[in-house]
Amino acid sequence: DGGITQSPKYLFRKEGQNVTLSCEQNLNHDAMYWYRQDPGQGLRLIYYSQIVNDFQKGDIAEGYSVSREKKESFPLTVTSAQKNPTAFYLCAEHLKVTQYFGPGTRLTVL
Amino acid sequence: GQQVMQIPQYQHVQEGEDFTTYCNSSTTLSNIQWYKQRPGGHPVFLIQLVKSGEVKKQKRLTFQFGEAKKNSSLHITATQTTDVGTYFCAGRSSNTGKLIFGQGTTLQVKP
User: Fold this and answer.
1) A104 contact residues in B (CB cutoff 8 A)
2) For the segment B61-83, what is each residue's pLDDT rounded down to a tens digit?
3) Which sign, positive or negative, has the C-alpha torsion B48, B50, B52, B58?
4) What is the pLDDT of residues A28-84, one digit of tens each?
5) Residues in B touching A91 (Cβ below 8 Å)
6) CB atoms within 10 A of CB B98
7) N or C, which end of chain B is more exposed by having fewer CB within 10 Å?
């Protein structure tokens, strides 16, 4: 794998609370991505960042926010505006032709 | 918008049987990648195909990229229980450069 970590592995939150998912990489790569995975729907792109202090919306950015203040960190905040936040969230970094995924965070909103 | 459709969604096979999953894009792709996700795990890169009509093999796995660069397939010969998981294709759009994932095919292998 490409040296990308996500924490925690499992996260539980009450409805209406914002929650921030961590994503860290130690290989000095520029491009980082956040995906959401739901059963039977594959991977859907939430946000991506090609460079520090810059990021772009993906296909399903509503209800999410990100920051890229440091090259090695790309945290994702799931806000209370996200209507169906329970899902498996995957962070990825891009190296040459390949995307390397972190282990993922399974978020459950109760 | 551009879509990458993958079929079937699920496949159950007896150990030793062959397995194939197919991907079709609504538009031309510059390349296509394949990933495998084990149960409870994260997607892991398997291979990338770039050329029209390209065929690549990894042991029992054979990957093909269509002549029109709009479809691809992954074929596993003589499946083993270690092949269990979800296989995703991901096509990179020739127009936008975006990587679009198919819905995945989940393979179950009965010993």
Assistant:
1) 42
2) 999 999 999 999 999 999 999 99
3) negative
4) 888 999 999 998 778 999 999 999 999 999 999 999 999 999 999 999 999 988 989
5) none
6) 14
7) C
